[in-house]
Amino acid sequence: MSELILPSISLLFFTFFSISIAVDTLTPSRQLFDGETLVSANGTFALGFFSPLNTTNRYLGIWYHNLAVHTIVWVANRRIPLTNLTGILSITTTGSLHVTYFGSVNSSSMLWQSFDYPTDTMLPGMKLGPYLTTGLDRNLTAWRSPSDPSPGNYTIGIYADGVPQMVLRTAGGWLWRGGPWNGFGFSGAGPTQFYDISLYRVFLSVFNVTKEEIFYYFNTVNDAITTLTMDHNGTVRRNEWEASSENWNIDWLAPGDYCDFFPACGANGLCDTSSSPVCRCVEGFDPRNPVNWGRGDWSDGCVRAAPLGCHANVTDDFMLVPGAKLPDTREAVEDMSIDLDGCRARCLMNCSCQAYARADLSQGGIGCIIWTAEIIDLRVYANGGQDFFVRVAAGGNGA
Ligand SMILES: *[C@@H]1O[C@H](CO)[C@@H](O)[C@H](O)[C@H]1NC(C)=O
Ligand SMILES: *[C@@H]1O[C@H](CO)[C@@H](O)[C@H](O)[C@H]1NC(C)=O
Ligand SMILES: *[C@@H]1O[C@H](CO)[C@@H](O)[C@H](O)[C@H]1NC(C)=O
Ligand SMILES: *[C@@H]1O[C@H](CO)[C@@H](O)[C@H](O)[C@H]1NC(C)=O
Ligand SMILES: *[C@@H]1O[C@H](CO)[C@@H](O)[C@H](O)[C@H]1NC(C)=O
Ligand SMILES: *[C@@H]1O[C@H](CO)[C@@H](O)[C@H](O)[C@H]1NC(C)=O
Ligand SMILES: *[C@@H]1O[C@H](CO)[C@@H](O)[C@H](O)[C@H]1NC(C)=O
Ligand SMILES: *[C@@H]1O[C@H](CO)[C@@H](O)[C@H](O)[C@H]1NC(C)=O
Ligand SMILES: *[C@@H]1O[C@H](CO)[C@@H](O)[C@H](O)[C@H]1NC(C)=O
Ligand SMILES: CC(=O)N[C@H]1CO[C@H](CO)[C@@H](O)[C@@H]1O
Fold it and tell me: pLDDT tens for residues 268-305?
């Protein structure tokens, strides 16, 4: 564990394409100096010191070695730039990786595993999500500006409370919810993104919850070059390198429309970009503040038109919302052992159950999510989404 090896492809390559001194192995006695690069075995990535646009600050980073557009995918010392060209990357005998100034190499820092500290870019195989054992949370954090890699206001990661979901946060709160994993992708990633078979050409996504960690990652297939980035201005996007145009294609981004902005229509509201106005109450609910609602201020949301029959031993009904992005799952529970009928029965048996839906759409549909608090951030897609069942008083809309 005391050697970091990124073998260079050939000396000939460096003769023609690199002005730096080729170093291919980092050992306690062989450090990497500013101006040198380590290049990965097949020439895809380079590691070295760089300066972002419009600054002389130096950062240790990894970039695509051969792309015409200089694209940084990882930065080590994003909060602590070097101010001159005497930076050194070194690895100690105990396995610590250090960025220091020449002459000040010291062995006291902890081992630093780069993939555990993503910056604003997710590469194939890199995981997002918390370690449940150590609490270390792997998330993408935007740069402050294109000239400043220090942490900006936007962060995207996996929020673990309730049923885990992908969340894009800003200084003021949640901005966009990717929602819970539905077996193919995140429920709120959009109408077609994870169902579009053409995208499987490019990447495969994996999500899992184990005793040790909750994680999401993607792998590329067919040598595609693809990343997920958190922009300084709050946009998360998936990028695919297009060799023919020598530039990045944006395959997908969020937030993309009004209904993407959390919590678009308030509690028990439903957002639908294909209707006007875009917000309405879920059937069986009325605006909490009809005057504000009528003016297009949706923040107060909606309340039940009639109380649930639960407490009077009257059986309630369910209102189907097709094509749904599943609402906030912070106060929801998942049970992978019951099917949709079992889910409905369990919901009816518990007075705090407000809604239910399938947990996983793969394998013909398995498992169940039950919501026990108000329905927050529900939207529908013209195509895509899934069936969502809202509990209402018998008689439906309370009329
Ligand atoms: C960098 O500086 C130039 C010249 O001042 C300016 O035109 C450009 O917008 C700057 N770029 C960024 C990303 O700040
Ligand atoms: C580089 O900067 C560091 C930190 O300010 C300083 O200790 C060091 O002497 C500088 N080296 C040179 C050659 O300027
Ligand atoms: C994101 O990761 C950083 C670094 O591990 C951590 O400090 C932060 O709490 C995480 N979560 C959010 C929402 O920023
Ligand atoms: C981050 O948010 C704070 C508070 O909303 C704001 O003052 C600051 O300008 C923001 N910073 C960036 C880099 O957007
Ligand atoms: C998730 O992890 C469990 C064990 O931790 C494993 O048995 C299961 O195969 C994993 N599922 C996927 C889809 O990777
Ligand atoms: C380079 O190596 C990586 C890791 O083995 C592999 O995923 C990638 O497809 C290779 N790329 C090329 C262009 O050979
Ligand atoms: C955010 O920044 C990216 C990269 O700088 C840019 O391509 C995009 O247009 C910006 N988006 C918005 C909404 O400003
Ligand atoms: C509801 O039904 C249960 C048993 O079926 C009964 O014990 C209870 O008293 C009933 N409650 C009301 C309010 O009718
Ligand atoms: C109803 O659901 C809540 C939330 O999941 C749970 O705490 C409670 O134990 C459930 N009650 C019954 C009777 O199952
Ligand atoms: C390699 C090296 O210089 N290690 C030193 C780093 O600093 C500690 C404490 O100051 C010394 O004990 C090491 O010898």
Answer: 999 999 999 999 999 999 999 999 999 999 999 999 99
Give the Cβ contact number of residue 308 at 10 Å.
19
* Centre of ligand 1 from the C-alpha of residue 54, in Å: 6
342 C-alpha to center of ligand 8: Å? Answer: 22
Is 0.85 topped by the overall pTM?
Answer: no
Give me ligand 4 centre to Cα 170, in Å: 9
Q: Relative to the alpha carbon of 52, which ligand is closest?
A: 1
Q: Which tens digits make up the pLDDT trace of 337-390?
A: 999 999 999 999 999 999 999 999 988 899 999 999 999 999 999 888 999 999
Is 56 near ligand 2, meaning CB less than 6 Å away?
A: no
Domains defined for the chain, CATH in brackets = 1-115 (no CATH), 118-256 (2.90.10), 258-392 (no CATH)
